[in-house]
Write a structure and sequence with these properties.
By secondary structure, this protein is an alpha/beta fold. The protein is about 35% helix and about 15% strand. Helix 2 crosses helix 7 and helix 5 packs across helix 7.
């Protein structure tokens, strides 16, 4: 995996947004995606993990004030195709008419459920408060939380035999070479994640790989960047094993990361709230 010493990181669009408001929310809605088959991998563990996640995650004992977390797992594995990703993600993250998965019918990957559409928009990510993309990293025996994604360098052929080597869509629109998540994954998120699953090998990473994992991450970050919305998106790389034990470990890793995301968000919001209260108190004294 890469390191944050890369020069592009220093010149990239930093995702250091103001603290995010969470105090008034009773529920946090998170979109989760996993990938389908590609190359010689007929079964992709990322989707097996995604569909194994619980519908609801409750806060840890360390953060009892956090609201409950509701997961919306996309009912189908995402096709490992650049074009398919670039079509799907803007639809999912649209500020209006964003599909909310109907869990009553979305039971299996090949179910024919119709998405329920919501006209309401909270100005962030449609009805979603954050997004977790999950993908497979063959050869890895650890779980990696990716901090950023790349605009260029997609030379590996997808399942349709296509590359994005000559693509200039993002560059022509002024998008930066690297976009970062609003979450500092090598800081508080990683510490909370590790605390939640101390027996797992969990690592922050700065190189999602210049393939469809990297591409879907950048696509989501770009959609939020171009519409000036908070980039509350994280990508989780999981090992390629598909045994029951491996999927169970992957599910624990994903649940822990989701909880770490929300707890970090809540912690930052509380810090910002106290800061404003202190500033207002200071103004009153004057």
């Amino acid at each position: 995996m890469g390191s944050n010493s890369n020069a592009d990181v220093l010149s990239s669009a930093s995702a250091a947004p103001p603290a995010l408001s969470i105090s008034d929310k009773e529920e946090i809605n998170i979109l989760v995606t996993g990938f389908g088959q590609f190359s010689s991998f007929s079964v992709n563990p990322s989707y097996l993990i995604a569909r194994s996640l619980p519908t609801t995650i409750y806060p840890s004992l360390q953060s009892p004030s956090c609201p409950r977390i509701t997961l919306h797992v996309h009912p189908d594995p995402v096709r490992v195709s650049y074009r398919a990703i670039r079509t799907l993600i803007p639809e999912l993250l649209s500020p209006s008419k964003t599909p909310v998965i109907n869990f009553a019918t979305a039971v299996t990957p090949d179910s024919s459920n119709d998405a329920i559409y919501s006209e309401e928009d909270d100005g962030v990510i449609g009805p979603y408060d954050a997004v977790l993309h999950i993908g497979m990293a063959n050869g890895h025996n650890y779980y990696a939380c990716e901090a950023q994604a790349h605009r260029d360098g997609y030379e590996i052929k997808d399942v349709d035999g296509e590359t994005m080597q000559k693509d200039t869509f993002w560059k022509s629109r002024g998008a930066p070479p690297i976009l970062k998540s609003a979450f500092q994954v090598d800081g508080d998120v990683w510490r909370r994640w590790k605390r939640d699953a101390p027996d797992l090998d969990l690592r922050p990473s700065f190189d999602p790989g210049h393939y469809c994992c990297d591409f879907i991450y950048y696509t989501s970050l770009y959609e939020l960047w171009r519409t000036n919305r908070e980039r509350r998106v994280i990508f989780l790389h999981v090992p390629g094993a598909t045994s029951h034990a491996s999927i169970e470990r992957g599910t624990r890793a994903a649940v822990g990361l989701i909880r770490a995301m929300v707890e970090t968000w809540e912690s930052e919001a509380e810090k910002e709230k106290k800061k404003k209260e202190n500033e207002e108190a200071g103004e009153e004294v004057k």
